[in-house]
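Q: My collaborator sent me two sequences in one message, no labels, and asked for predicted structures for both. Can we handle them in order? The first one she listed is below.
A: Yes, handling them in the order given. First sequence, followed by its structure tokens:
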Amino acid sequence: MSVTSTRATKTKTPGSGETSHKRGLPRGGRRREFTTRRGLQIAAFMAPAAVFVAVFTYYPMIAGGQMAFRNWKLTDLTDTSWVGLKNFRDVFADPAWGTVLGNSAIWVFGSIVPQLVIGFALALWLRRHFRFRGLYQALIFFPWAISGFLIGILFRWLFNSEFGVVNDLLQKAGLIDEPVAWLADPKTAMVAVLIANIWYGVTFWR
């Protein structure tokens, strides 16, 4: 057999399956034509998901956004007239605006940073194989299964100034001499709610 015939035998024809696969075509070498019927089928399959997202995501977002431009009073919900930017002007003119902004920054960074660090450390730890690993994973994910309402009640009891567990443990350890009013003192209230939020959200980063 000559060299020319050997090269011709080794050369792939344009209609071969491998060449069609490299070009991104199906294994028949033919691309399906996009017809109106096929487009309607795709739209029909996507319609339920689109309706669900529009009703439960975009509609509440738009409805909640327009509430900022209306008159809202908890004592009188019958008058929700349009006030434009008045609510924003009142907020920025409030003397407590700086305090609110600072507390919001403390809340965001004081929650996200510890949750990220602790959650990442737990994820690395749980990658190791050890006894009762499944039990530890269940305990770590336990806060995520509890409602926020129950978590609020739980930590309200833990930080209670009269019979709370936190004060009892700190007094037995000799770290404090008398009970601390965690939720009544502005200096410690933020610490208490941050601890509760970190405990609740750390499993999300896990």
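Q: And the one she listed second?
A: Here it is, processed independently of the first:
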Amino acid sequence: MTAGDGPSAEQAWLVAANVVRWRRYGEGGQELRPGTKSYRGGSKVHVIGTYPGAAHEQLTTIGRGRHTGTYITIDMATHNLHNFRAVPVHSPTVLRLCEEAAAGGCRTGRQEAEALAVLLGRLSVEYRTTR
């Protein structure tokens, strides 16, 4: 392990993603709606947990809510996210919410976060094209 790769008290490596700007809605996906019910389109969220047994279709995320602007922790569908990447997180609020959620993804190293980002990026494209 090299310096900067391991977790510390002030930093954690998490997977960040952006909420899709427009999502399909309604019967047959004929209608487009901006963002999701909880997040604005384009909002940055941090993935703090996945459900591997359910093929990563749902993720636990932390981000700023659409209506209040305060940080929220919710489960959401993988197909509503894109642009997955590994990022070092220094925000005390995000780190605190991550620890409180006890989702298990809060103290990962850089390599684990990068591997998960690649996997989730591939799966999100696949889930969007099959819906």
